[in-house]
Write a structure and sequence with these properties.
Layout lengths: L2 H13 L5 H8 L3 H5 L5 H4 L1 H13 L5 H10 L6 H10 L29 E10 L5 E9 L4 E8 L4 H15 L4 E4 L8 H10 L2 E4 L9 H15 L7 H17 L11 H4 L16
Parallel strand pairs: 1-4, 4-5
Antiparallel strand pairs: 1-2, 2-3
Length: about 280
């Protein structure tokens, strides 16, 4: 029992039960001198520790607790590490730990793009804001064979089930790809997407964490889309983003010359027998 708790128990015994202070102190096992002595304020009692910690942190602001504690011990301070840590945390000197998300090791797949359709589709997400500050996301899907932008889905949220539904719609129009190239985002490593790929016999080609150059085709596509659409206009609603994106995607695939394709548009480089996809379902923003 702490001294403060003992004082409260003595006050209950003397106030409610009428015991003398001497008898109450004997029952609680507390000296009368300690009961009558006013408890010191914790700030005043810990002031030497506070001053010593401030002196260390002022010189070495990047040191953690144990570095500071060892420095105090080397300086001749004999405070217990529990007391020093309590004061250290009360002063909010503890540095936050940045825990890195563990991502499984990925096999490095070569960025080979044979000139054939539906060999590998590349997927990636982008984000931007409307004029009122609301953030929205885009799901970009590219055919690496002719660099054709298959679709750009725009919404406030793009969960894994929506990614799967979008892929189903693309497969119904263009046929299924042999592989998907993408990063390690939570929507792209979800059970829903991996199960969809297993059911359709589509290989998963995850890039290594922190290596966007391994998905260079979609990254270059994202840069063009941002320069010519997202950064070029101020949007008031998702409807405006979708309208301008749809118009730009048709121009990108049919009119805009592509340097790596011999300066011709993607659908001129390798034409498709199917018409461009037009979404037939509505999603809530």
């Amino acid at each position: 029992m702490t001294p403060s708790a003992k004082r409260q128990a003595i006050e209950i015994l003397t106030g409610e039960h009428g015991l003398a202070v001497r008898h109450a102190c004997r029952v609680i096992s507390m000296a009368r001198a300690a009961y009558y002595r006013p408890p010191p304020e914790r700030v005043l009692r810990d002031q030497p520790v506070i001053d010593a910690l401030h002196a260390v942190v002022a010189k070495r602001s990047t040191w953690g607790f144990w570095k500071c504690f060892d420095a105090l011990r080397l300086a001749g301070r004999s405070w217990n590490h529990k007391r020093v840590h309590r004061v250290y945390c009360a002063l909010r000197l503890n540095l936050p730990r940045r825990a890195r998300r563990r991502v499984p090791q990925r096999v490095q797949h070569p960025l080979a793009a044979p000139a054939q359709l539906n060999h590998t589709w590349a997927l990636d997400f982008m984000t931007d804001t409307l004029y009122d500050g609301r953030r929205f996301r885009t799901l970009n899907i590219l055919d690496e064979g002719n660099r054709e932008g298959l679709t750009i889905d725009v919404a406030m949220s793009l969960p894994s089930m929506r990614v799967v539904a979008r892929l189903d719609e693309l497969v119904a129009v263009y046929g299924k790809p042999q592989a998907l190239r993408m990063d390690n985002g939570p929507e792209l490593t979800s059970i829903a997407l991996t199960r969809w790929c297993a059911q359709h016999g589509v290989a998963l080609r995850y890039i290594r964490p922190g290596k966007p150059q391994q998905n260079a085709y979609i990254e270059r596509f994202n840069r063009t889309y941002r320069n010519e659409v997202l950064d070029a206009y101020v949007f008031d609603s998702l409807a405006e983003v979708r309208t301008l994106t749809s118009e730009w995607l048709v121009c990108y695939n049919t009119e805009r010359p592509h340097d790596s394709l011999g300066r011709v548009p993607p659908l001129t480089f390798i034409p498709r027998s199917t018409a461009p996809l037009e979404s037939t379902f509505e999603w809530s923003a």
